[in-house]
Amino acid sequence: MLIHVVDASHHDPVGQVKAVREVLAECRERGTREIVVLSKSDLADPVDLAALRSRFPGSIAVSCPHRRGHRGAARGDRGGPSSAGN
Description:
Layout: E1 2-7, H1 13-27, E2 34-39, H2 46-55, E3 60-61
């Protein structure tokens, strides 16, 4: 399974997805499941975000506007009070 994170606030997120998929086509077997994650969804225009979600069915919109716990994410921290602002 491939989790493909896309910057939803970028001026051309569709172009980004297209470019990455072209590279991936050269590197992977056909049939690998892809989940598109639309990051920075809080910064994206709501109309553009809706269009992206329509264009990429099953996509997941995420954001972290307060950046709580962002450094501990790789360790599995949940962003509780002890890891906030690390």
